[in-house]
Every structure is written in C-alpha cells, then in structure tokens.
Amino acid sequence: MRKLALFMFFLLTTARVLQSEEEALAEKLVISSPEFKYGGFIPSKYTCDGENINPPLRIECIPKGTKSLVLFIEDMDSLIGVWVHSVWFNIPPSETIENSLSGVMGTNDFNQQSYNGPCPSTLGHTYVFTVYALDTFLNLNSDAKKPDVEKAMEGHILAKGKLEGIYCKNNRFSMDITPLKVSVKRGESAEFQIHTAFCNPTFEKTPIRFFVSDLHSSMGWSITPENNLIIESSSETPPGIYWFRLLGEAREYSTTDYAALIIRDSSQESGESKIISLKEAQETRHQKEWPQFGGNSQYTFFSSTTVPDRLKVRWKYDVGSSDEGRIYNLCSMTSPAVVGTRVYIQDFDHLYCINLLTGNLIYEVPADTMYPYTPTVADGKIYISEGDHFKCLDAGTGDILWEKELPQLLLVSPFVDSNYVYVTADQSSSSFCSLLPCIDMVVEWSVLMALNKDTGEEVWRYSVDGIPAQGLGFPTGADGSIFFFFNSYESDKCFTSKPEKSGIACLDARTGALTWKRESILPPPSCNTLYPFWMTYYKKNLYIGGRGVVFCVDVKTQEVVWNHEIPALSPALSVGNGVIVVRGFLQADCLDAETGEELWTKPLGGTGMSVMSGSDVFIEDWETLYRVDIKSGNIKESYNVDEFINTAVTARGNILVVTEGDTLYCLGGPGFTEVILAAVAVAIVAVLTGRVIMKSQAI
Q1: Which pairing describes strands 342-346 and 350-355: parallel, antiparallel, or unpaired?
Q2: Contacts of 100 (CB under 8 A, 6+ apart)
Q3: With contact defined as beta carbons under 8 Å apart, do 190 and 259 qualify?
Q4: Can you list the positions of beta strands (E) in 539-597?
Q5: CATH class (in words) of the domain with range 302-668
Q6: What region does 392 belong to: left with phi over 0, alpha with psi -120 to 50, or beta?
Q7: What's the rounded Cα separation, in Å, for the pair 131 and 56?
Q8: 544/555 Cα distance (integer angstroms)
Q9: Which residue spans within 282-399 are E strands per DSSP?
Q10: Where are the alpha helices (DSSP H) in 305-379?
Q11: How far apart are CA 599 and CA 577, in angstroms?
Q12: Are 487 and 473 in contact (CB under 8 A)?
C-alpha cells in the first residue's frame, strides 16, 4: 500500500518535539464537588449572596510525588476578560479542599488575599475551579498574583484538573421537555411535561411564559397549572412528525427546547407506526445542530436551523498551536462540531470545547493529529483520532472513555448511528496541492470497521479487495446502508485509475455484508487521476463530484440519472431544499437536484465549502462570506473578514467561521440583553483602540 511521504513523518515528529514536555507528561486530576455537578448551578451559599465561602472540592488521582496543590478560581464571562476570584497555593496534598485549609492565599483581581465568591452583575457566569498538583512548594508570598504563580509552577506540574459551575444573580433557568416524542392518532391530544430550574433559587417564584412554534395550522396548544404542555390535533391534521419548539421566557431571560409529536392515521397502531421512529425524530432535531463533518453522515452540508438576518459577531476564539515558531495553519477544511450549547474544534495538538453562547473555553485536552478536521459528537461522546489511536471522549469533560489502536489513521471522519460508530483505517493519502504541512487531500483506505460505540469493541470489518483497489473518501451512511467509492489503479506504483474497474459499493450497516457493487458506473475522468472526490446522499440519490463533472446516481437502480460538466477540478457539494450547490475554484453553481439543470452560477473566489441553511446558502469568497438566496442566486448579505475564510458551519441559529489565521468566529443575531452588552463592549473597544465597526458588518 502507498505510504505517507517521508516529510509527513518528519513534520509529525517535529510537532511532537515542539510540545511542552511538561504538558505531555502531566496527568489528569479528577475534580468534583458534593455541592454541584460539572456544569451545574453553584449553590448561593458559596457566593456573594450567601456565606461567600469556598465550595468543597474532591480531588482524585493525585500522583505520587505531589508536594503541594494550587487552586485558581476564575470567572470566564467577565465583560473585561477572565477575572480571577481566588489564588491559592502551597496547599497540602489532600483529596478534599474545604474552606478552612492551610496554604497561602495569593492576591486575586480584587487585589485581596481572600476567596471572593461568584457575584455576576448581569447574566449567569461560568466559574472554573482549576487545581494543579506540583512536585514542589512555591517560594512566594501572599502578594503573588496568578501570573506570578504560573511562572513559578513552570517545570513542576505533575497533574491538572478542572471543575466548572454556573451562578447568576438574574432569573436564568433551565428547561427540559419529556418525553422526547409522543405518538397519537389524528384528533387526539398529546401531553408533555415541562421541567424548569432557576440558576438562582431566589427567582424560583418568577413566572415563566411559554410559547410553542412549528406546529401545523390545524393544531392548538395550552399549558396546565402543573406546567404540562397539551397539544391538540384535529381530524384535518396530516399524519407525520411535527418537531416543535418550546420557548420559555422569564423577564429578560429565555431558553428553548424541542420535542416531537407524531400524528398517525386511525388505522395505525401506536407500536407499529411507520410515520416516524425515535431515531428519525432525534435526527430531525440534530438537523439544527452540526455534530460532525458535513453536518450529518450523508455529508449534505445542510442545516434546518434558522439563521437571522443582519448577523453580528457574538464572539471569537483563537485556535491553533501557541508555538512561536509555527509556520503552518489549520487545514482548509478544519471545521467545528456543534451540539447543544457546546462547540468542539481541533487544532494540531488539542481538542477545544467552547461555550456557544459566550465563546469561553470550557476545557481543552491534548489531541495530536496531522490533519485536524471535524470531531464527531454523538450521545454525549466525542470520536477523534490521535496518531494510530481512535479515541472516544466524554463530551462533558474531555476524559477518555476508551481508545483503540488502529493502523494508519491519517484523516478520520467517523459517523455514528443507533448501533455503531464507523471508521476507516489502513489509510494512505493523495495530495491535491503543495501547501505544507496540512495538505488538502483525499484519503484512501483499505478497511472499514463498525465498532461498539460504548466500548470500542470491533463488531465487523470490510476490507476492500486490496491494491491496486482501495476505498476513496469518506463513506456515507444513510437508510441503514453505507456507500463508498472504490478505485482500481493500473498498479500499486501509480495513481492512474481504471474507470472500468472502479465504482460504488453499498454495505449493510448492521452486518457489514456487501449489498451491491457497481463497476463502470461513472464515465472516464477528463484526465488520468484519482476520481471521484466528493459524494453526498439526498432523497435516495448519490451526488458525486468528480474531476470537472457532477453525477447523480439512483441508489435503487445504480444508474446515472444525470451528469453536469463543471469547470472545477475537485467540486465540493452541498445539497438540500431540492438543489445542489457545487463549489469549485473561483465559481459556485446551483443545480436542480432532480434534473441537473443549472439554476444560477456565481463567479466567487476561494475554495471553501458552501453551507446551506433553510432557503439560504453561505459561500465564502476569500475574505468575505456571502449569504445567497438558493432559488434566485441573489446576494442578500455579506460579511467581511480580515483574513481568508476556510470553512463555515451553521447550527442553532449561528454561523461559525474558521479562518486561515486560525480564528473561530461566531456570528448570530443578538437578543435584547446581548444588544446591551454588545453596545458596551463596542464602546470599550472603540475607546481603547480607536477602531470603528463599520455598518458593512466587518468582523
């Protein structure tokens, strides 16, 4: 099998050498509290509204040789940046940190040597309790601030751990709907339970108003005194799934949750409804999120989320290695995953979890990779590759749940269904450009495996016939099947493909058995090289981007429905709402998904993926992101960035943009409170820097 070029190995080795030796050797402390869970609400007893004492902490996995502990407590949501509430060092190693504990209390950002509990002035803030285990005592006094302690710790860190909690002085609350779905016959009503909890107990009597949207016009709804939601259907309600949105509003704070109502014909039994399954209901909900590369296992680059007009920058976060001598940037297809209110993104040596609402870092964990693409997030787990190890992490904490050694993991985009997680291995790569070290590339592979998503145990594997034939690109999962390309080559020493022996294969996702295999299905490429490059699944068809041409293949008949020539070497595809947007170099084309007829074309620079959201498609043009109407091709809005745009994704009403300069931007429509905070932030920036944010929506 073709191996990676020697320079790939050299660069990977160099990147590892550049890592901080201390960070590489540091172990992980497990931090918890009996008073609140990770990401939970901090009781008011431990805040300025209560006794203002430090909450008890439990510390596990303290390594041998630990001489002292260090504790930092920080507010991550302060308007002027991270605010240090407590600096505590030379704490004797103990599995418990209580309020009355020996050690040295350093100077916090209040210029005090004390614990100052959470005391946010506006919205709920996130507070991070960070504990370090050191192999020494620090020769510092109580005048030392956090930077002084950090400098003194260098070279002495044995382990590190974090605990995160939330506190607010306003009426912030959480809301959940149960059950996830209710199935009824036409004309019947369905009942859901609404569960709410206020962050600050003093607001428990604050009335909450509820609003329901996305129902059919024939439906009605009401709220009982017990906070039960009743949705009534009628005889005119069409059978189907209605994924509705519940908005809860208490004064200036609001939150949302979703649930599914399934309407059946009177002839259908509740246990045998063919309208919708729970799995499909969850998938409908996930269409508003972005849990993996391409948004889903079909790689449609489509989201049903509604993106508001006149987007503003809500926050930005700098991603990428901090090595001063670093000369490379993220891959041109590095993009984040978004699930719930968390954003997950990789660089070359870390995985970051970021708060979608605030842009604050929740946690980061080491994760070496030569090709930082998109993590896959499902069922509270994150799936990534690190070297030759495929890993499953806890999405809440970043802790490793399991890992499995697999050969040649270069570029991994796993996907998950209700049964397994699917991943390719024994890979080689093919470069399409000469940018180093992260090359735009197509991955080839020899093995496709299904793993138990909870344990990593191998369930089945499928091996391509072998050199000179290999799988190409990311397998696509849909309707209980897995589709992939296989390429046959003249020999194992050249890249010239043999179209008459190349084609598409379909596997049963549950068993790995070959369902069908079709050779010679695609016309010969315009030049002898690897093909095709891109494949997505939409409405029982496969859409394939090759060298200068796009194909539509009927999955049932395995026949080419249409093909359309495109002036693009490696067209990338986005599909939804009955159209397919083809993104090539210096051009974007929109085709009718059913007929292949060209609807419009736009001369746009750049090479990044287009992403669809509702009736719009977002297309980058070097430093500008255009919002284009899917049907007409008219530009509706534009957002300018000071650096080249690599990728954009849509989720939960936001656009997340990754730039060539390794910056992650979140663009969204601010609510009332956010408008006030944004105005204050803009005023501060204007005073400090003298810069003006122009009406053109420059980022």
Answers
A1: antiparallel
A2: none
A3: no
A4: 541-545, 549-554, 559-565, 572-576, 579-584, 587-592
A5: mainly beta
A6: beta
A7: 13
A8: 12
A9: 302-303, 312-318, 337-339, 342-346, 350-355, 361-366, 376-378, 381-386, 389-394
A10: none
A11: 13
A12: no
Task: Decide whether 6-167 matches 302-668 in CATH topology.
Answer: no
For residue range 256-287, list pLDDT tens digits in order.
788 888 898 766 554 434 434 444 444 445 55
Dihedral angle computed from the Cα positions of residues 648, 650, 654 and 660, in that order, rounded to the nearest 10 degrees = -10
Strand (E) positions, 585-662? 587-592, 598-602, 611-613, 616-621, 624-629, 635-640, 645-651, 654-659
Q: Which residues pair with 130 in a beta bridge?
A: 72, 162
Question: DSSP secondary structure string, 491-513?
Answer: -TT---B-GGG-EEEEEETTT--
DSSP character at residue 5: P
Please give the structure tokens belonging to residue 682: 């803009």
Which amino acid is it at 645?
I
Residue 227, pLDDT > 60, answer yes
**pLDDT for position 406:** 85
Backbone angles phi, psi at 152, to 5 degrees: -70, -25
What SS3 state is found at 645? strand
The domain segmentation of the chain, as residue ranges, is 6-167, 173-286, 302-668
pTM of the model: 0.59
How many CA atoms lie within 13 Å of 469's alpha carbon, on the beta-carbon side?
17
Sheet order of strands, 57-60 included: 30-32, 57-60, 96-97
Measure the CA–CA gap between 666 and 344, rounded to whole angstroms.
13
Contact 231, 221 (CB under 8 A): yes
Burial code (b: 16+ CB inside 10 Å, e: under 16) for 386-414 equals beeebbbbebbbbeebbebebebbbbbbb
Q: Could you tell me the pLDDT band of residue 562, with boundaries at 50, 70 and 90?
A: very high
Run of H or E residues at 408? none
* Weakest-pLDDT range from 259-273, 330-344, 390-404, 660-674: 259-273
Q: In whole angstroms, how large is the CA radius of gyration of the chain?
A: 27
| 401 close to 390: Cβ distance less than 8 angstroms | no
Q: Kindly state the average pLDDT of the residues 564-581.
A: 85
Domain 173-286 top-level CATH class: mainly beta
Question: How would you class 590 by CB atoms within 10 Å of its CB: exposed for 0-12, middle for 13-18, buried for 19 or more?
Answer: buried
Which of the 8 DSSP states describes residue 278?
A: H
DSSP 232-267: E--TTSPSEEEEEEEEEEETTEEEEEEEEEEEE-TT
CA atoms of 360 and 79, how far apart (whole Å): 12
Three-state DSSP class for 563? strand
| HSE-CB of 197 using CA atoms within 13 angstroms | 10
Overall residue count recorded for the chain in this entry: 699
Structure tokens at 337: 């995953």
Tell me the pLDDT tens digit for each residue of 88-146: 999 999 888 876 667 899 999 989 998 888 887 655 688 999 999 999 999 999 999 99
Percent of the chain with pLDDT strictly greater than 90: 34
- What single-letter DSSP state applies at residue 272? G
What architecture is domain 6-167? Alpha-Beta Complex (3.90)
